Amino acid sequence: MVMLGRQGAGKGTQCVRLSRHYVVPHISTGDMLRAAVREGTELGLKAAELMAAGSLVPDDIMIGIVDDRLDCDDTTERGYILDGFPRTVDQAEALADITAARPLDVVVDLDVAKEVVLERLAGRRVCSDCAANYSLDKPPRYGWVCDNCGGDVVQREDDTPAAIEKRLSDYETKTAPLIAWYRERGLLEVVDGYGTADEVTARLLAAIDQRRR
Ligand code: ADP
Ligand code: ZN
Questions:
Q1: Ligand at shortest distance from the CA of 2
Q2: Dihedral (CA of 134, 27, 110, 56) sign
Q3: Which atom of ligand 1 is nearest to the CA of 12?
Q4: Active-site residue, 211 included
Q5: CATH code of the region 2-212
Q6: Per-residue pLDDT tens over the stretch 143-195
Q7: In the chain, what are the domain boundaries?
Q8: Gap from CA of 84 to ligand 1 centroid (Å)
Q9: Which residues, 6 or more positions from 197, have their beta carbon under 8 angstroms from its beta carbon?
Q10: 34 catalytic per annotation
Q11: Which of 86, 113, 142, 176 fits a disulfide with 92 by CB distance 3.0 to 4.6 angstroms?
Q12: Out of 34, 124, 125, 203, which one is annotated catalytic?
């Protein structure tokens, strides 16, 4: 399946929960890029500046990364959750080609209004080692130290006001059109992203179960 939705809608947290529930890999292009930046790979060097400014990484690079990742055996057995890709119509078209032999079951749009995500993005904190999500409202148990791995919990470099603004405006012009694109192809489920994480998870499971092949 594919998870769409505005930045800060809780996609990451929900995708982790879904990947545990269905026992399938959670493939987050944002996490993959951040790992490449940490490791200082060629890709990481190219992506770092774009990401810090809140700009999208070029389509051809992103399509190559996802194509390689979906070739791995762990995705062919039970499926996968794709988080953060596609973000443009060109990426969606490439994904349709990549998955031609095993088409997507469902595309979920996790629906949260712009005013709400702005607030959530400003309060968002993340583990610099394992990428676990926290927030000012839901901090780790002890100081800003990750509950899972003991890593430092910090604000993401691209959660500055200017980068947030850029990401949300790119979302409206480039990513939001995918909602209609997938609806036309009969793949779209819209899930209300308001409420507690448990409430949202329950809605997601209901929407996905009814679509699973
Ligand atoms: P968010 O948590 O804000 O939704 P992600 O963690 O998914 O953002 O991605 C972080 C950054 O990585 C994006 O702002 C963008 O620069 C880059 N990125 C991730 N996925 C893609 C993609 N599919 N196409 C282009 N850029 C991407
Ligand atoms: Zn951690």
A1: 1
A2: positive
A3: 2
A4: no
A5: 3.40.50.300
A6: 999 999 999 999 988 888 888 888 899 999 999 999 999 999 999 999 999 99
A7: 2-212
A8: 6
A9: 10, 13, 14, 17
A10: no
A11: 86
A12: 124
